[in-house]
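TA notes. Do not distribute before section.
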Amino acid sequence: MKYLLPLAAVAAVLVAPAASAQKKGSAKAPAAAKPAAGQPSRAEVENASQTLSTMIGGLQSDKVPEQVKSAIFACIYRAPLAEISRRTTALLEQNKAKLNASDPTDRLSAVAAVCGVREAPPGAASAPASKKPQGR
């Protein structure tokens, strides 16, 4: 049920170009399925679908820190999915030795990096808090 809306959105993106082509009544279909100018390729749509699915999974997970969830949500709000997906895919390609594009955890890490999440310095989480405020 939680994936119904994203799947419906992806289906709408995939069906809309086909439906508009049928309305135009073109008698001859192109031999190679090249996207029209400005239209995403099939690979771009698949990458965007995987990226969106990973972002939604990360937002719903109790294992993802709140700061990462906030950054991802802000990223979704500010940037088009196409840009987030393109940058995430490029980052995954650049780091093939370290990151597996098929692994949702690696993809979520790439999305987080694209969205501006920086790793905490080593020991930052375990550093003792400074003096606690004292009452009167």
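Switch to the second chain here.
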Amino acid sequence: MRTLAESHPEYLDDEVESGLALVRGHATGRSWLAAPPYREGRDLACVLPTTLAPEAVSRLVDFVESRGLAYGLADPQRPTALRVHLGRTRTDDDLGRLVGLLDVLLKENR
């Protein structure tokens, strides 16, 4: 992402917005999601506002990170939200698996 930002900054927003669209597509209709995922300013991650209490989000993040399943989900500024990186390292399959994992952990029936 840094290379893209430095060499072709005009493409960075398109790349990030594409990632946001993928996250929105995977997260639509989840009962644990309080509002659609959004991007704050020019951040390279999106915010997933949840219906969970701060303690539940903290336990969820600790569980996922301690098992090496995902990292960087915590958002210190938003204790009831999760963060998802929108860079090139994520794929559509990765996002689908992450949202599916959250469904299982949060007992979302799909």
